[in-house]
What we know:
The chain contains 22 helices and 21 strands. By secondary structure, it is α+β, with helices and mostly antiparallel strands. The strands form six sheets. Strands 4, 5, 6, 7, 8, 9, 10 and 11 form an eight-stranded mixed beta sheet that branches. A hairpin with a 2-residue loop joins β15 (507-509) and β16 (512-514). α12 packs parallel to α18 (412-425) and α18 (412-425) runs parallel beside α22. The radius of gyration is 26 Å and the shape is globular.
Amino acid sequence: MGLGDVTRAGVLAAVAECQQLGRETFRRRYGFGRAKTYELVWNGNRYDSKAIVGVAHLYSVGGLLSADDFSGGARTVAHRLRTLGFTVEESSAGADEPEQVAPQIVLQPRGGSRVRGPQNFAKSVRQGVPIADIKDVLGEQADVLMALYPDGIARLWGSTPTTQVNNEKVRALRDRRVGDDVFFYAENHFIARARILHLFDSPHVARRVWGTDEDNATWEHIMALGEVEEFPTRAPAAPILRRLDVRVPLRSLTLRSAENYRHVAHLLPARRQPVLPQPSTSCPAVPSQLTAAELLDRIGSLGARRRSEDTASDHHRSLALLWAVSRIAAGQPRLAPWSSFRAGVGPLLTEFGVPGLKVVPESSFWGLQDSGLWEVHGIESDAGPIAQTETLDAVRPVAGLTPASAELLQDPLTRLEAVVKLCSTHLSDVDQRALLSRVGLAGYETADGLLDDDEDGHDQEITDHERATGPTARRESTSSRLVRNTAIARQVKDVHGHACQVCGTSLQYMRRPYSQAAHIRGLGSPHDGPDELQNLLCLCPNHHVLFDGLEIYVDIDGIVRQTHGADSLGRLRRHVDHRIGEAYLQYHRTLCELSRLTKK
């Protein structure tokens, strides 16, 4: 894939996003610098040519071109844009504009429980820090952080000062820069990735966010981070560290060059395609912010503004929308070219569409714009009620979820609620279990989701060669498994004295207490729940199986009920030292609601 794959529709989609975000935020989000040589001119506005083409490639064929992927330089980018019918002019940037550089790799130990590493990561990286809570100590950094985080939640991490002169940490603190990629390290694995958006020093901010250690030191060298991507399957660190010539295990903040980064990129998890944040309110022509409730309402009223007898077409539009939701769950771009849409949605319409109704993917590709959740780029708005296949094949437009709806669907609970709304409102007459499996959402069948390789417990069929008398044959395999925090599993069991929180049973196995730690929002895909105490229950094996199998749930009043019949099993047993996250229980309840729908 290269510049030749970039389409005019992809460019128009990238331009639309840049208009919504503003040039600076757009460049920062995708890791580009300001154009030094050529700028795209469209409708009287100027855009950074490389940034536009890099994102246009994402929406044309599904892969983002990064800042260091343009081997032919700015001139080839300008040539491609002109070939597509766009105007390109020399850049208005000054000669002193900093040179665009490829990201370096920053290796950041998260730290263990002794230094509150897991708690600090959950607090300031995963959940984020409300800027309003620290505004009084931010000083001049307040305006910077508000511009970086329009939603008011900052993702921060820091480092303590050092008295050394030229060790790994000193060099990393000195030479890291905005645009570098940070990889968080814990328990011999890399667990998450984020991009540096801003760097600043402030012991006052650090004390407010993280407090101080036993030596009264704090993390005053602060990184403001972009979207944090936690890896569903953690990456073993040792092979990566050895290639980077870093001692194993990783003990200190460490920096390696962009060239070193490229040499280990294939060992790291594939980058999830970025999903745009809501545009800053300072940008002109920004649509009003969409809420999760409005998103679900629009899904529920899909097609309501058209004539009621067109319910068959609404059924097909719902299938297309479910396909789009599954792309978000899989980390794919929110927009897709017409050819990918037809290849993905066409078979769905044939298999799960209204019997006897002609399969017309064009209708959904174009008509979903009525929902307010969908946009099309690269084709004139007066194409008629249904853009013709010949027109779509010739123009090669792109379409998909709007930035606001795609951003909301990144949240696992909102995404699950959207799936439930689609199934209950528009797709009640199809085999929903088969449909969800068909679009890649089969993990919703259980609370623990789809785990890696053979963790789902399915046996493999024995071959004739392996069939023999004596001990059961073994088969060599390579697997990748989720790394669980055994310390918090022990903690939840100890807090409850190994007594099941549903039935109160305390089991003994081999003369020792026995219980199981059950995740409320599963770690497997598509749930991607966190491995933390608030997301755990202490259960006996029987109720663990029933909970994971969506046969029981905890209602909003704390009563354990059967999913199919709603009979009560009594109140969930709680302990003052074990605070359960209500959002996780709500997620599990919604899963059980989907289970009731799909088992009808």
